[in-house]
């Protein structure tokens, strides 16, 4: 049985166009668009009609950086694939790319299989995987080729966290050389973890144990140094590079310089770096622990350079790095020692709304909003135009967005499985009203109508953003 839906009367916004159009959906895909009121649109017939008059019709968001159920610091991220993807849908995101983890001494395949088992049958929206490479050796390098062939086309390495995820420059170079050959994309956590560990030890020895010192020891210059080093290693390898969660203006400058040289170097930032700062890390009574993440929050003056980078396309993507830990019982593990606070913030539900607020505030345009939240992450990670746009043939991942509705962000009303909001009390304009995933309603006029198991695994092609 064929199923058809028509969305009528909305302003359809993609990365390239804005048009008042009706959208015809058939069997889970976009079948056609036609200008509202035109004869072609009037001819659209369907069992279900959604009135989007006065609303935006936008592609479902693509969050290319999440960590559901991630083991970290003796505990686990508090969102499961079920709760996390449901919250993502509430926030207008219809595809996540999560990170499978290779443990040291184990194979990539074992890590990937473990993450498939966590996610399969539990997701409300579609999902894909990157692979965290923690142990570079000859067998790992061969496995990278196999993973690219089956649709896991990006590999994350860490210049931070010695003894856990850390790779040295030689391991990084070898993985980059392999990705240059197999078409994979290396994603880099760029912080000088060896130097940071020295500063952590020295700070704790001085009795500097509060959460705010987390930001003080993870210095912006050490993010910039690692970013520079990663860029040059990628240049030597002839490989593209994607730097995750860029937070420091000095790191943005390194990316801009590399891009001016014509290198395939890309950068991602996250809402926490655009909207929060070291002021939050310094909140009293251990409240600052809620904001501990790595790279860390920076002083407020960095924000202007991040927004500038998004406007000039020196930063291409805004993802969340959603990695929630409850304040009670998890963040509290670091009372008396900031280095034991689990690193990560909740945000998968807030990204689309916060970036729409940036449109309202004049930081970015409407089309740039869609570009950095939907289209470019889909292109960067080999899912476009199946994901990230509204065009004939694309998956019918569609959000009806009310640009005038006002809301107050709060842990009392969010759907993430975490006991605080990083944006508690923040007023924003704009709100998700209805969400379709492959044509199926997941959120219907602010009610959850989806179910675990609707979301399917999505193999990816290689990066579509290379120059």
Ranges where pLDDT stays below 50 over 5 or more residues in a row are none
Shape: globular
How would you sum up the major sheet?
8 strands, mixed
Alpha carbon gyration radius: 21 Å
Q: What quaternary form is this?
A: single chain
Percent range for β-strand residues: 15-25%
Secondary structural class? alpha/beta
The number of distinct β-strands equals 18
Total helical elements: 14
**Alpha carbon gap, first and last residue:** 43 Å
Percent of residues in helices: 25-40%
Mean pLDDT: 97
Question: How would you describe this structure in keywords?
Answer:
globular, alpha/beta, about 25% strand, eight-stranded mixed β-sheet, about 475 residues, eight-stranded parallel β-sheet
Describe the structure.
The chain has 467 residues and is α/β, with parallel strands linked by helices. Helix content is 31%, strand content 23%. It has 14 helices and 18 strands. The strands form 3 sheets. Strands 1, 2, 3, 4, 5, 16, 17 and 18 form an 8-stranded mixed beta sheet that branches. It has an 8-stranded parallel beta sheet with strand order 6-9-10-11-12-13-14-15. Strands 7-8 form a two-stranded antiparallel ribbon. Strand 9, helix 3 and strand 10 form a beta-alpha-beta unit. Helix 4 runs parallel beside helix 5, helix 5 packs across helix 8 and helix 8 packs parallel to helix 9. It is globular.
């Amino acid at each position: 049985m064929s199923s058809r839906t028509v969305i009528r009367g909305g302003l359809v916004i993609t990365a390239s166009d804005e048009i008042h159009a009706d959208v015809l959906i058939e069997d889970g895909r976009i079948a056609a668009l036609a200008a509202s009121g035109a004869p072609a649109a009037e001819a659209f017939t369907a069992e279900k009609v959604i009135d989007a008059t006065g609303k935006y019709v936008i592609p479902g968001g693509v969050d290319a950086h999440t960590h559901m159920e991630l083991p970290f610091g003796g505990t686990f991220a508090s969102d499961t694939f079920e709760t996390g993807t449901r919250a993502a849908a509430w926030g207008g995101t219809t595809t996540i790319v999560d990170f499978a983890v290779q443990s040291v001494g184990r194979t990539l395949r074992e890590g990937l299989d473990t993450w498939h088992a966590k996610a399969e049958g539990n997701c409300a929206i579609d999902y894909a995987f990157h692979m965290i490479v923690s142990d570079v050796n000859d067998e790992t390098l061969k496995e990278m080729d196999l993973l690219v062939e089956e649709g896991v086309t990006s590999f994350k390495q860490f210049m931070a966290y010695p003894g856990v995820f850390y790779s040295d420059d030689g391991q990084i170079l070898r993985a980059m050389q392999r990705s240059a050959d197999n078409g994979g994309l290396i994603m880099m956590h760029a912080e000088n973890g060896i130097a940071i560990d020295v500063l952590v030890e020295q700070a704790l020895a001085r009795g500097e144990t509060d959460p705010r010192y987390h930001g003080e020891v993870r210095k912006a210059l050490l993010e910039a140094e690692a970013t520079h080093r990663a860029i040059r290693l990628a240049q030597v390898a002839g490989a593209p590079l994607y730097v995750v969660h860029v937070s420091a203006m000095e790191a943005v400058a390194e990316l801009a310089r590399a891009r001016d040289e014509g290198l395939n170097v890309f950068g991602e930032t996250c809402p926490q770096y655009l909207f929060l700062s070291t002021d939050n890390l310094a909140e009293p009574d251990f409240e600052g622990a809620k904001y501990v993440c790595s790279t860390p929050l920076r002083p407020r003056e960095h924000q202007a350079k991040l927004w500038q980078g998004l406007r000039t396309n020196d930063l291409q993507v805004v993802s969340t790095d959603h990695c929630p830990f409850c304040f009670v019982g998890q963040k509290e593990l670091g009372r008396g020692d900031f280095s034991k606070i689990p690193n990560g913030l909740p945000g998968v539900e807030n990204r689309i709304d916060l970036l729409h607020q940036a449109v309202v505030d004049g930081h970015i345009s409407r089309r740039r909003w869609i570009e950095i939240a939907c289209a470019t992450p889909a292109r960067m990670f080999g899912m476009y135009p199946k994901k990230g746009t509204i065009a004939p043939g694309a998956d019918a991942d569609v959000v009806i967005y009310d640009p005038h509705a006002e809301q107050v962000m709060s842990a009392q009303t969010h759907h993430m499985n975490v006991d605080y909001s990083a944006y508690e009390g923040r007023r924003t304009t704009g709100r998700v009203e209805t969400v379709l995933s492959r044509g199926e309603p997941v959120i219907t006029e602010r009610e959850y109508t989806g179910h675990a198991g609707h979301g399917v695994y999505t193999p990816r092609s290689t990066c579509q953003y290379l120059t």
